[in-house]
Design goal:
The protein contains 5 helices and 5 strands, in the order ααββαβββαα. The protein has 2 domains: about 15-75, 3-Layer(bba) Sandwich (FAD/NAD(P)-binding domain), CATH 3.50.50.60; about 85-200, FAD/NAD-linked reductase, C-terminal dimerisation domain (Enolase-like, domain 1), CATH 3.30.390. A hairpin with a 5-residue loop joins β1 (about 85-90) and β2 (about 95-100). Strands 1-2-5-4-3 form a 5-stranded antiparallel beta sheet. With about 210 residues, it is of the alpha+beta class.
Length: about 210
């Protein structure tokens, strides 16, 4: 990655100061509560303009739909900004859903987490003889909540497809036990999440000898 450029929030010249809507002066983004409400009760904001939220089009669409349902349809459902599946479509894809390990530690405390991880070798890499320890998978589990999966990360082929499927399970309260009880489809990359048994805290070797 040579350079990564984010979006600018062009909020300084649209009259927000006239009605008293506060913005983050550093980036122009708008702080909101968990219902996308600004400091001015009748003004709401959604999408990339939100301070500290994900700049993803599907997130904005979901948030807007749920906001409309709350304002006009009697709903109480709020947008989940944590369990959002996303992927970086680099030549070796990276997919994630839920907390990054560092954020999970901040949220739950390191002593309350168990991290399972492994390197893996996709079957299609065996023919050209590509490095069998380039792909990586990790789940972060909350020990205080039945080892519920609070973060899932994968670096490998088709990471977007893999992450999208597991995202639904995470929304349903996926636990490490449920993953262990799930029969994997062999030989797929996603299968690795059903066989993970090495914890990061153990310090054990996670390199693989084959697919």
């Amino acid at each position: 990655v040579l350079i990564a450029i984010g979006r600018d929030a062009c909020t300084r010249n649209i009259g927000l100061q006239t009605i008293g809507v506060k913005i983050n002066e550093k980036n122009g983004k708008v702080p909101v509560n968990d219902e996308e409400q600004t400091n001015v009760p009748y003004v709401y904001a959604i999408g990339d303009i939100l301070d500290g939220k994900l700049e993803l089009t599907p997130v904005a669409i979901q948030a807007g739909r749920l906001l409309a349902q709350r304002l006009y349809g009697g709903s109480s459902r709020k947008c989940d900004y944590i369990n959002v599946p996303t992927t970086v479509f680099t030549p070796l894809e990276y997919g994630s859903c839920g907390y990054a390990e560092e954020r999970a530690i901040d949220e739950y405390g390191k002593q309350n987490l168990e991290v399972y991880h492994t390197l893996f070798w996709p079957l299609e890499w065996t023919v050209p003889g590509r490095d069998n320890n380039t792909c990586y998978a990790k789940i972060i589990c909350n020990k205080q909540d039945n080892n519920r999966v609070v973060g899932l990360h994968v670096l490998g082929p088709n990471a977007g497809e893999v992450t999208q499927g597991f995202a639904a399970a995470i929304k349903c309260g996926l636990t490490k036990e449920l993953l262990d009880e799930t029969i994997g489809i062999h030989p797929t990359c996603a299968e690795v999440f059903t066989t993970m048994d090495i914890t990061k805290s153990s310090g054990q070797d996670i390199t693989q000898k084959g697919c």
